[in-house]
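SEQUENCE-TO-STRUCTURE ENTRY
===========================

Subject: a protein chain together with a token-level encoding of how that chain folds.

Sequence line: the amino acid chain in single-letter code, read from start to end.

Question of interest: how does this chain fold, as expressed in backbone structure tokens?
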Amino acid sequence: MIYLLDTCIVCESRKRYPDPRVVAWLDCTPDEELFVSVVTIGLIQASIEKLFLIDVKKAAKIENWLNLVAATPRVIPITDDIIRLAARTQYENPGFDNANSLIGATSVVGELMLVTQKTGAYRPYWRDGRNPADIPMKFLKMNP
């Protein structure tokens, strides 16, 4: 199974006190099955830019980590098919968030399982996604 991690999942893994269900799910899933959209890289970079105004040292540390993530082959670019599906979805769902539309379209076009804690944010795309917070801890511990 190939998973597309929503930005909230990537950020959750970086928190000082992350949701243990998310951490457990990530620990149980082989790294080679985890992918992110280039949109997630952009969203995190935007947050880093804001953080530079408050805490340069912390922002630099997070940016170094993001550079490592961005350099992996597991960052999915936006293709013509993705942008067209996102545009159609936004037309059919006025007010739908642009970043979520691109990430959702990436999961559909690439036939990837979308992993998010914000299932409502992907309403037009939500089919077979996964929310690690909904998976019982017992199940997570049984799957190495």
Observations:
- The domain at 3-142 is CATH 3.40.50.1010 (Rossmann fold).
